[in-house]
Each structure stands twice: as C-alpha cells, then as structure tokens.
Design brief:
Residues 28-487 form the Amidase domain. InterPro entries: Amidase (IPR000120), Amidase_CS (IPR020556), Amidase_dom (IPR023631), AS_sf (IPR036928), GatA (IPR004412). Belongs to the amidase family. GatA subfamily. By secondary structure, this protein is α/β, with parallel strands linked by helices. It has helices spanning 2-5, 10-18, 24-37, 49-64, 106-113, 156-163, 180-186, 220-230, 253-266, 291-306, 322-337, 356-367, 370-382, 388-412, 438-441, 447-452, 483-496; strands spanning 44-46, 75-79, 117-122, 169-174, 189-192, 212-217, 243-244, 247-248, 277-281, 310-314, 416-420, 456-464, 470-477. It has an eleven-stranded mixed sheet, sandwiched between helices. Strands 7-8 form a two-stranded antiparallel sheet. Helix 3 runs antiparallel to helix 4 (49-64), helix 6 packs parallel to helix 7 and helix 9 (253-266) packs across helix 17 (483-496). It is globular.
Length: 507
C-alpha cells in the first residue's frame, strides 16, 4: 500500500482503511516519511510525529468500531494560517515564530472531528501575502515539478505537499487567488468556495472581506468530501452564512449538490454535459497571456465541447480594474487586521526599547517582512483622511461593478465561466525580486472572483514552459453557492483526461 500511497485517491484510501487493508497509523507514518524525504521542498514548517500518530491511533480505534467516515484515517496537513492547539501557528512570520494557539480553528476542528489525521503545518507567504510563497520568513517553498521554480502562493506549501504526494489533501486560504494559483502551478486541484460558506474563525486574518478557506487535493472528486466537511455555519464567525440560496449551510450541502449533478450528467450518455453553457471571457485572452497557457486552455475547452458543453463568448469588461481595486481594499483591511501585532499581548516583542511607542514600532520593524510592511503602508495610506474617498471608496465602487459584470454573464449567457488561472507557468524563484509589484499583475484572472465572493477552482489541463514540464491550470468559476456543480463539471473533465494524475519527477 505504501508504494501506491503517494497518488491514491481519498475514496480509494478510505475503502482500504475501512476494509482494514491498511491502518491509519501506517498511512500516517508513510506520510511522515515522505515529508522527511522531501525536506528540500520546504513545504512544512512544523511536524510532530507523536501528535500525528496519536490522531492516527484514535482514527484506527474508530475504524475498528465501524464508526469511521469518509475522512477517518486520511492524512492531511494545514496551511500555517489556521491556528492549532498543539502544532505551532506562525503564519510564516517571525512575528509569531513561537506562538501556539489555545484553540483550534473551526476548519481544523471539523476535520479533526471527521477523523482526518494532521501531518503538520504548511509553509505559506507571510500572513498569506504573496503569489509565489517567496515571502515566508522561513524560506521559499519549492515547486515539486522544478525546485528552482515557485509553487505559487500564498498556499504554496499546501499545493506542493499534494503535488509531491506527501498527503492526499491539504487546507489553504484564498484571498485573491491563493488556492487556485498554487494549485495551477503545481498541477493539482483546488477550490475556493463562495465567501461565507466556510468559517473564518481561527483563520489568521489578512483581508476580512476576501479571505476564504478552501481545500487542495489531486482531483475534483477528492475535494468533495473535504470541502463538504469544512463548510457550514459558525456562530463564532460574523461573516459566516446560515443559508446558501435557501439551503441550510451545513455539512452535506456540497455533497448533495455534487451527487445530484453527477446523476444528471450520467443520464445524458456520451454527452454528459449537453446543455451546459461555458462562458469564455474575451478579456482573459490578451497579449499578457502566454501562448502555451492559451493553447492548453483552448484544448481543455475543446474537450469540454466534445462532452456536449456549448462555448459562449462573454465579456467581463472590468477585468483589468480588479488589480488596482484589490490592491487598495486588501491592504486597507490588512493594515487594520495586523495592528493587533504590537508586542503587548502575544507574539514577538522587541528586546530593546525605551517606551511603549518605541516597543511597538521596533516590534513591527523586526517581526514583519518586507511584503507585509509594504501592504500595511499602502493600506494605512489609502485609509488616511483625504485619501479615503479617492482610493478606498472608489475601489469599493469598482468592486461592485466587477460583481455586476459576473452576475450579468450568469444571468444572460452562461452556467459556468472558464479560462486561465495564471498568465504563465511558474516563474523561477527570485525572478521578480527587483519588482515587488510584478507578482500582483499575475493575479489578474483570479482577483475579480475574490472581489465578487464567487466560488472558483483550478484543475490541471496541460504543461508548458521550457520543455513543456511545468503544469498549467484551467479556472472554473461558478455563480454563488454552486460548488457542487463546479466540482461535478471538473470531475467530468478529469474522467477523460489524466493531467491530474501526472507525477512530478522528484530528483
């Protein structure tokens, strides 16, 4: 079993566990061993074998009693932006280098309750601010397909751990594309659900009106059970939704919608997606899109058409405006959220200071990295008196117009929108070191979705770059609360392609 563990699906592993062909402890140990074999990737920030094996023993006890669910005994790992009681939570920042939370994030607790076994905490951009996972205070994560390239960010450790076969699934967070982009660049699948459907309690805040947790796994089918358990109303989160288009926001919602769509597709024979209208935004195919990415996306769209779907050209005219809008709103919210790190209550405190003001300023200067400081300064500036109306309020108006563009497309022309996730394949580590805003431009296809709060996902659809060895992702965007439909549509593509099954050549 261990020789096949790296690329076994969650359903397959679940059957093996319930039939006692393998134990949760064996899977956990295999995962721990793989994590240690791939330390060159720098995907993990904290591993504790004892804690992991304790959870695995508990999962084995549940399975022995016949009480296991679909995730009982399945190894997973958490982005180090979710607080955890026993593993350290650093947000990949010196500010929280030695911090351990007194409670678990809701996402962590729900997966624990489902019997999933945590292997540890995963590297990310500091406080989730970045597009390449180069901003971690503890070093960049490396892409399993090419260790000299970035894995994408900010959930780079999450995507790299799945791509390398260390764990079948991980948790991530998506503020402006931080689940979809690393999933695309690492050749795995990841989904950002509708804003408010997954609790943000215990998720270290970056942009409170944008942050949303989402899973990363090898396939769309693997994502279903993870997302289904992660989701649900949480009274401790003021942004959590009680209902989703009239349906209670609780575990089972996504699974039921997924199964319903799959049954419908199965009833249509060799044309399972007959009647599905795919909107393709003309603004996504411009000069900034690399030819290899464009070709891979076009080939994927042709594959969808062969399954019965109809391609429809649509327009999202404010696509380019998503970049300035997001990079006003997100830093503004970050400047507020990160003001709590002042050296008084928790985290780093500067060793040398003469008064309270100096303690706070030196603590922040020593604890925050350059990208975090940059965004705090931008955010503080746009919220200042005299600039608030000109920048922040204007950005919020643009945000509403971007949302309206999506809603018009769904109301009049299409059921799902498809296009690229990133303008190019993964860049080399350090390529944009002299231009910190270059990474911001790479988010052009993901930011609008986040500003609108829509669900979206990335699935592998080909390879590009030199020698065609780096993964390319296809983005699927749905209307509010259509996560089940998105996953079913993605699964139909993965049933007839094998991009999601490709294995990186680990050296």
């Amino acid at each position: 079993m261990s020789s096949n563990f790296e690329f076994s699906g969650i359903a397959e592993l679940g059957i093996a566990l319930r039939e006692r062909k393998v134990s949760a402890c064996e899977l956990a140990q295999a995962s721990l061993n793989l994590a240690k074999q791939h330390t060159n990737l720098n995907a993990f920030l904290h591993i504790d074998d004892q804690l992991t094996l304790e959870q695995a023993k508990h999962a084995d006890a549940l399975l022995a009693q016949g009480k296991g669910g679909p995730l009982t005994g399945i190894p997973i790992a958490h982005k180090d932006i979710f607080v955890t009681q026993k593993w350290k939570t650093t947000a990949a920042s010196k500010m929280l280098e030695h911090y351990t939370s007194p409670f678990d994030a809701t996402v962590v607790q729900r997966l624990n309750d489902a019997g999933a076994v945590s292997v540890g905490k995963l590297n990310c951009d500091e406080f989730a601010m970045g597009s390449g996972n180069e901003n971690s205070a503890f070093g960049a994560t490396r892409n399993p397909w090419d260790p000299e390239s970035v894995p994408g960010g900010s959930s780079g450790g999450s995507a790299a751990a799945v791509a390398a076969g260390i764990v079948p699934a991980t948790t991530g967070t998506d503020t402006g594309g931080s689940v979809r982009q690393p999933a695309a660049l690492c050749g795995v699948s990841g989904i950002k659900p509708t804003y408010g459907t997954v609790s943000r309690f215990g998720m270290i805040a970056f942009g409170s009106s944008l942050d949303q947790a989402g899973p990363i796994a090898r396939s769309a089918n693997d994502l279903v059970d993870i997302l289904d358990i992660m989701g649900g109303f949480d009274e401790r989160d003021s942004t959590s939704l009680e209902t989703c288009d009239g349906i209670a926001n609780q575990p089972g919602r996504v699974r039921e919608a997924y199964d319903t769509k799959q049954a419908h597709f199965s009833g249509q024979g060799s044309q399972p997606l007959k009647g599905l209208r795919i909107g393709v935004p003309k603004e996504y195919f411009n000069a900034s899109l690399a030819p290899d990415v464009a070709q891979a996306v076009e080939t994927a769209l042709a594959q969808y058409e062969s399954l019965g779907a109809v391609r429809v050209e649509i327009s999202l005219p404010r696509t380019q405006l998503a970049i300035p809008s997001y990079y006003v709103i997100a830093p503004a919210e970050a400047s507020s959220n990160l003001s709590r790190y002042d050296g008084v209550r928790y985290g780093l405190r500067a060793a040398d200071y003469n008064n309270l003001e100096e303690m706070t300023s030196r603590t922040r200067a020593e604890g925050f990295g350059d990208e975090v400081k940059r965004r705090i300064m931008v955010g503080t500036y746009v919220l200042c008196h005299g600039y608030y109306d000109a920048y922040y309020l204007q950005a919020q108006r643009v945000r509403r117009m971007i949302t309206d563009d999506f809603q018009q497309a769904f109301a009049e022309k299409c059921d799902v929108i498809m296009g690229p996730v990133t303008p190019s394949v993964a860049k080399k580590i350090g390529d944009n070191r002299d231009d910190p805003t270059a990474d911001w431009l790479a988010d052009v296809y993901t930011l609008g979705v986040s500003l609108a709060g829509l669900p979206a996902m990335s699935i592998p659809c080909g390879f590009g770059g030199q020698n065609a060895t780096l993964p390319i992702g296809l983005q699927l965007i749905g209307n509010y609360f259509t996560e089940g439909q998105l996953l079913a549509v993605a699964d139909r593509y993965q049933n007839v392609t094998d991009w999601h099954q490709r294995k990186p050549d680990q050296k």
